[in-house]
């Protein structure tokens, strides 16, 4: 943790990093999801070309307009969306050994002071960690753990409990956050919040299998940059929701 920063500055920086990676993730979704229908329209334009009379000037102008529109949209994706994404596409990782227990204690302390205490949410730590170490980017992994705990706190009702289970299992460090979601708290503006309103609203929307809430994109990027994995499991009936971050002990 950067000791030169005040608590408020540290929280502001963490929120800014969260927003930056969410922007990058949204642009990735837009780029991917827009190309599929554009490719389909492009293919159907060729089908129509073979069916329409070449001498029909109006139909030919319509086909030209369709192709021009597709080309303009693809160029927009390449020039604006893909170019913007390229700024953060490669996540720089600075690797060094550091203690896992100290990382856990620091992240939990930040979230308690920054949001959980004000929200009346209890963070419980379940860990056998003592002197175990991981080789990776301490700051990035700390950011991911902070975001997991903050999101779980944001989604929990007053009096709720967020459980962090942290352990060294085999060749990986495992961080699992469990909480009982109360979706309305994400958008209740009478409560203290750290995450952007847009991100909190989107987190309540139904998602396809394998997709995570946009606001958690930093967690996935950090995990993948270290050769690990991040998962968001939605709650089943009578069960809590979970967030899981796994990072190799010799990350990268």
UniProtKB/TrEMBL annotation:
Enzyme Commission designation: 2.7.13.3
Domain Histidine kinase positions: 29-251
Gene Ontology molecular function: kinase activity
SUPFAM superfamilies found in the cross-reference section: ATPase domain of HSP90 chaperone/DNA topoisomerase II/histidine kinase, Homodimeric domain of signal transducing histidine kinase
Domain of life: Bacteria
Catalytic activity: ATP + protein L-histidine = ADP + protein N-phospho-L-histidine
InterPro entries registered for this protein in UniProt: HATPase_C_sf (IPR036890), His_kinase_dom (IPR005467), HisK_dim/P_dom (IPR003661), HisK_dim/P_sf (IPR036097)
Gene3D superfamilies xrefs: 1.10.287.130, Histidine kinase-like ATPase, C-terminal domain
Matching Pfam families: HisKA
Keywords, ordered alphabetically: Kinase, Phosphoprotein, Transferase
Listed PANTHER family: HYBRID SIGNAL TRANSDUCTION HISTIDINE KINASE C, TWO-COMPONENT HISTIDINE KINASE
Name under which the protein is recorded: histidine kinase
Lineage: Bacteria, Pseudomonadati, Pseudomonadota, Betaproteobacteria, Burkholderiales
């Amino acid at each position: 943790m950067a000791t030169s920063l005040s608590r408020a500055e540290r929280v502001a920086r963490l929120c800014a990093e969260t927003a930056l990676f969410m922007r990058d993730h949204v642009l990735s979704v837009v780029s991917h999801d827009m190309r599929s229908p554009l490719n389909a329209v492009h293919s159907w334009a060729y089908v129509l070309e073979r069916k329409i009379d070449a001498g029909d000037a109006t139909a030919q102008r319509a086909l030209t307009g369709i192709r021009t529109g597709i080309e303009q949209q693809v160029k927009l994706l390449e020039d604006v969306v893909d170019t913007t994404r390229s700024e953060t596409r490669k996540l720089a990782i600075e690797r060094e050994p550091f203690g896992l227990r100290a990382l856990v204690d620091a992240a939990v302390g930040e979230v308690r002071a920054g949001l959980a205490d004000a929200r009346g949410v209890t963070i419980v730590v379940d860990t056998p960690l003592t002197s175990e170490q991981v080789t990776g980017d301490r700051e990035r992994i700390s950011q991911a753990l902070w975001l997991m705990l903050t999101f779980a706190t944001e989604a929990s009702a007053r009096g709720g409990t967020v459980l962090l289970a942290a352990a060294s299992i085999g060749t990986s460090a495992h961080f699992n956050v469990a909480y009982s979601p109360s979706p309305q708290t994400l958008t209740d503006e009478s409560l203290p919040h750290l995450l952007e309103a847009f991100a909190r609203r989107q987190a309540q929307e139904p998602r396809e299998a394998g997709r995570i809430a946009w606001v958690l994109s930093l967690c996935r990027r950090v995990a993948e940059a270290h050769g690990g994995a991040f998962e968001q499991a939605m709650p089943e009936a009578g069960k809590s929701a979970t967030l899981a971050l796994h990072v190799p002990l010799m990350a990268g």
